[in-house]
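It is worth pausing here to work through a concrete case rather than discussing structure prediction in the abstract. The textbook approach is simple: state the sequence, then state the predicted structure, then interpret. We follow exactly that order.
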Amino acid sequence: MEKVTSADGTTIAYERLGTGPRLILVGGALCDRRSLLPLATGLGRHFDVVTYDRRGRGDSADSPTYGVQREVDDLGALLTAMGGTAAVYGHSSGAGLVAIAASTGLPFTKVVLHEPPYGPDDAEPTGDADAVLELLAAGHRREAVERHLTMTGMPEPMAREYAATPGLAECAPTLAYDYTVMGLTVGSRVPVDVLAKVTQPALVVAGSASPPFMVDTARRIATILPAARYAELADQHHAVPPEILAPVLHDFLSSRKD
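Step two, the predicted structure:
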């Protein structure tokens, strides 16, 4: 494990493995650097890969107040530590963060967005995110995790069991960070203005077995990004096994074509 200091003085923990072109992996809600380690290991045969603890998770520190720009600065610090430029992959709400970071002009060489969970433009806010935030404010972390998981479509018995995973409740407060990134507290719509500023060669990934709104949203995002292609993984859900996902990323990241 290594650490880098972000612009506000927060230390960010990361692991780096492999050799080749540089690549940063960005996890989604309730994920730390270990969550993407199997994917990083698979890609490490061809790339110099960083997987990190987003602030407030794992071995990374946090700041008294949160702002999305702070997480963008964290990525900037990792880029500096890696030599200045890198490709970037983001999964779920991590893809939402990647889109924002890329739109600010961070020197990413290529961008991969894997099912950022934006909702349809005509979707009405459900209040579920507010309910999660209320549970967090009351100190009910495990219940907040469970409510979040059911909000994403996980059956209640499975969500209850998963929420009891040791250490998972410690990440619960960062759900508020992901909601801020995705805009879930006011209804999550595709941020066309942000995506239009992502000018790097991009790949948008979705699994055909994921919820239909995620597949439709991924297809739409690919039409908004100035230089994007779309890849749909047959029979795959929101979480894709690394042995299936890694070759897709390798083909895109290694291609000389936009």
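Step three, interpretation. The chain has two domains: 2-121+189-254, 128-180. The longest helix spans residues 68-82.
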